[in-house]
Amino acid sequence: MKKLSVILLSLALVACVRADEIGEVSTAFILIGANHKVVVEAYDDPKVNGVTCYVSRAKTGGIKGAIGLAEDKSEASIACRQVGPISFKGTSLPPQEEMFSERISLLFKKLRVVRMIDRKRNVLVYLTYSDRLIDGSPQNSVTAVPMGEVVFPRN
Fold first, then answer.
1. CA distance 78 to 41
2. What is the pTM of this model?
3. Are 42 and 19 spatial neighbours (Cβ–Cβ below 8 Å)?
């Protein structure tokens, strides 16, 4: 029962992460519907105050993109930075945890951001990748945020 409540709490935290759209650029003109573009969004880490991750990803335009039927490309890039004093929400931080996920196709593909802890080097590592129900995607990007004098909470 305790494990179930931890899983539900983790899912609730992932669901609470909201992106702030920073900007976008058109990459291809589409006559009917929105252009294909690359969007840049900012995600604040829900468990670490003072860390924001910037994710750039392709967004498919056209009529299918406008009505949510298009499948966005798997490629994404991530850069996480310290944007204020770092502190932790709660008393523990798991060694690896999904920070955020977002659907990028109608059914089976999600863009995911996972936080990992490198305790030896006192660094937070963030990985972005896309997955598919069938075969996953090797397309990924990684970034790291050094913690300096901040010590990780126990897990």
1. 10
2. 0.75
3. yes
| Strand order across the beta sheet in which 19-28 lies | 19-28, 36-44, 48-59, 76-88
Residue 144 pairs in a beta bridge with 125
Extended strands (E) in 104-146: 109-118, 123-132, 140-146
Rounded Cα distance, 78 and 81, in Å: 10
What DSSP element (H or E) covers 129? Answer: strand 123-132
Residue ranges covered by each domain of the chain: 16-146
Assigned token pair, 61: 């335009």
- Cα–Cα dist 13/7, whole Å: 10
- 22-58 per-position pLDDT tens digit: 998 888 777 777 777 888 999 999 999 999 999 998 8
**DSSP string for residues in 13-62:** HHHH--EEEEEEEEEE--SSSBPEEEEEEEEE-SSEEEEEEEEEEEE--H
Q: Among candidates 66, 18, 58, 61, which has minimal Cα distance to 39?
A: 58
Give the CA count within 13 Å in the CB-facing half-sphere of 17.
26
The pair of three-digit structure tokens given for residue 9, joined into one six-digit string: 């709490």
Structure tokens that stand for 130 in this block: 């896309």
